[in-house]
Structures are given as structure tokens and as C-alpha cells.
Amino acid sequence: MSEVAVAGGVAQPGLSQVERVVDTYVAPSKTFTDILRSTSWWLPFLLAVVVTLGVGYAIDKQVGFERVVENVIHQSPKQEEQLSGLTPEQRTGQMQKMAVGYRYTTYAFPILILIFSVIGALGLWATFNFGLGAQTTFGQMFCLWMYCSLPKLFSGLLTIVMIYFGGNAEGFDLKNPVGTNLAYYLPDAAPWLKAALGFFDVLGIWTLVLLVLGTSIVAKVSRGKAAAVVVGWWVLMLIVSAASAAAFS
User: Fold this and answer.
1) Number of domains the chain is built from
2) What percentage of the chain has pLDDT greater than the value 90?
3) Spatial distance between the Cα atoms of 229 and 215, rounded to a whole number of angstroms
4) What is the rounded (10 degree) CA torsion for 28, 25, 42, 39?
5) Long-range contacts, stretch 168-175, CB < 8 angstroms, 24+ apart
6) What per-residue confidence (pLDDT) applies to 217?
7) In this predicted model, what pLDDT tens digit does every residue of 159-200 receive, in sequence order?
8) Per-residue confidence (pLDDT) for residue 6, from 0 to 100
């Protein structure tokens, strides 16, 4: 275990990657403070890869991406209308192409995790540094984002359990596979409303709280300012998601 110097010249042991992961759930301030010492983020990413690939495999074998596509189209009136105008052969071909696309995207999701994490961390880093005058680094924000995303692993694990032990392939919703958010309980709501309600997710709010706490420590700002930035970005993404769903569904 590595060491880090603290005030008074007394060296304190740094946290291991496993300790960081555990502390994110039970004592997050310890993990976030340790990020100031080291920005290593490989373990939370590795866990995300394992869980994500597990979800993809479960969907592929137990539900089938053809069924996933049928369910997605059923929830999108515009897509359903477009496909209804095709011949049976054209519709089958289009459905098969979409199923292949969903399969490749699902198994490639670890790459998308990195891309989304870079974008999210960059937005926070720029806001805190240029908006609030903080001195944090992009590496610190990226590492923080990875650890704050750990609660979302429970969504993947619950999805795997649900698929294997209580799943209904005909009703499987790729966007809301488990009941951790409000959208799950309103399957017939308008697409824009489901997109908005999807943000009111127990695990997502947990992540949001961790981001507020973590950014206040890493960026060395008050929790009030950290909350204003993090929640502000959350509200903006909610609006954009709802508007996009209304426009394209």
C-alpha cells in the first residue's frame, strides 16, 4: 500500500483500489480524498466492463435482440408507423439489421462507458475550473466520475437476476429493465415523459449525491457550489433527453 504525506510531515497510508471501491459505498469521503493522491481508476472500470458484458450476454441468450428491437419499436409510434409501410420482406430485413446493431452496441458498451465518462468529467472539470476558479485536474474529475458511477453496477446486476429468474421477454424494456426509476412504472407514458422520469432513479440519485460530495472535495469548493454545478448539469441533461425523446419518438 502506498503512502501520502500530510500536514506535519506525518505519512498516512493511501487506499488500495479495492478499499476505494468499498469506501465509495460505505465511506465515500475517504475515497474522494484519496483521489487527490492518485487518479487510478482501473478497478471501477473493470467492474463496469464485467457487469456490462454480463448484461449483454443475458439479454442475448435469454431475451434475444430481435425481441429487444420489437419492444423498442412498439414503444416508438414514429418507428412503428415507418415500418408499417414496408413490405413484410423489407420489414424483416430492417428488423434484422436493427437487431445486429443493438447486439454490437451492447457488447461494445464498455467503450461507450469511457466516452460518456470523458464527456461528463470534461463538463465538470471545465465548469469548476473556469466557472468557479477551482484548480482541479481533468484526471481527478475523470477518476471521480468512475468511482461515483459504482452504484449503477447494481442496475446491471439486478437486470441479470431479473432476466434469468423472473424475466418476461415480451415486456423487457432495454432502457428501463428494472424498477429503480419512475419510468419503469409508467410503460405507456409519452416518450418525453418516460425520458424525464428515467432521471428520477434511486441509483442515479445516489450517483448524483456522490458527485456533489466528491466534487466538493476534489475541487475544494463548498458543497452548496458543488451541488449547484452537479444538479445544474443533471437538470440540463433531463431537459435535453426529454426534448430529444419528444422529437424522435
Assistant:
1) 1
2) 75
3) 9
4) 0
5) 169/62, 169/63, 169/64, 169/67, 170/67, 170/71, 171/71, 172/59, 172/63, 172/67, 172/68, 172/71, 173/71, 173/75, 174/59, 174/68, 174/71, 174/72, 174/102
6) 98
7) 999 999 876 777 888 889 999 999 999 988 888 999 999 999
8) 46
CA 207/CA 41 separation, integer angstroms: 16
Can you give the pTM of this predicted structure?
A: 0.90
Query: Range of 83's domain?
Result: 3-248
Using a 10 angstrom Cβ sphere, with 0-12 exposed, 13-18 middle and 19 or more buried, the burial of residue 53 is: middle
Average pLDDT over residues 71-87: 80
248-to-15, 35, 85, 123, 218 alpha-carbon distances in Å = 46, 40, 18, 25, 38
Provide the 8-state DSSP code for 61: I
88-117: average pLDDT: 92
The whole-angstrom separation of Cα 12 and Cα 154 is 32
